[in-house]
Amino acid sequence: MKVFELCYPENMTIDSDEEYSLAIGFFDGLHKGHQTVIHTAIEKAKELSIRSAVMTFNPHPSHVLGGGKNKIGYITPFEEKRRLLENMGVDALFVVKFDMQLASLKPNEFVDLFIKSLGIKHVTAGFDYSFGSKGAGTMEDMKKLSAGAYETTIIGKVTDNADKISSTRIRKLLSEGNVEDASLLLGRNFRTIGVVIGGEKKGRLLGFPTANVSPSEDSILPGNGVYAVRFIVDGTSMKGVCNVGVKPTFDNPEIKSPLVEVHILDYDGDLYEKEVAVEWVKHIREEKKFESVDALISQIEKDKKTAIDILDKV
Fold it and tell me: Is pTM beyond 0.85 here?
C-alpha cells in the first residue's frame, strides 16, 4: 500500500498518475461502519478497473479546532490504522495534515484540491461526512461539485441493535471496561500497541511476573480493571491476564496514570524493549485495594484461572 502525505498548501502533489476510488473520513477505530465505507470503495475500484484508496486526516480535527487544548486518544493510532487498511487490501492511503489552513477551505476549494487534482474518479463516504470550512460541505454537495469529474456513493447509517455504530459509542464502552461489546462493534478485538519497559518488579516478588507495557502516547486504554487478554509478540499470541490501573494495594503516590501490566501464562523470557500488542478479550473484575498482600495473591490466582477459562473458549 502506497502512503501519500499531503499538506496544504506546501505539499499537494503525488508521484502517481493512477486513478482512484476513494473512501474518505477520519476513520478512528476502523469499526464496522467504516469498514462498510472502505469495502464499498474497494468494490467500486474493481468495477471501474482503477485503484482503491483511503483519505484520512492527522491530527484529529477536534484537536486543531479546539486550539490544541483537547488531548485526543485514538482507538486506532496511525500505525495501527495503516496496518489494518493494508490488510483490508487498500492500494493507497492519503494522509492529509489537518490544520487551520485546511479547515478554512471552502467546500469547492477542498474538492478542487483534494479530489479532482488527485485523480479521484469515485468518492465513497458515510451519510454524515462533512468537509470544508465549519463542515459546511455535505456528501450531497460533494456530488453537486463533481461537474462530471467523479461519481459518489453515500453509505447510510450502519447499526447494531438499532443504534449507530460510531467511534463515540466505542470510546464509551471502552471507558466502562466493556471490551467485549466494543470489539463486536469494531469487528475484531480492541488492541493496544506498546513497548515493554522496566517496572517496580512487584509482580515478580508476588510470584506473578508481569510485562509492563507502555502504550503509544496517542492511544486510549479501557477502564481500570483486570482483563483476560491475548499478548502478541514477534507474531506469537499468548494467553495473559492484565491489570490496568494504579495498584491501590501498594498505595504509591507516584503512580498518577494507569499502568498496563500483563502476566503472561506459561511464558518465561526477556521482553524488554520489544514492541507488543495487547488484545483485550474480556473484563474480569474492577480494580480494588486489598487488605493484605496475601489477599491480593489469592485474588490473582483466581483471576489467572478465570482468564484461562475465558481464553480457552475463544
Answer: yes
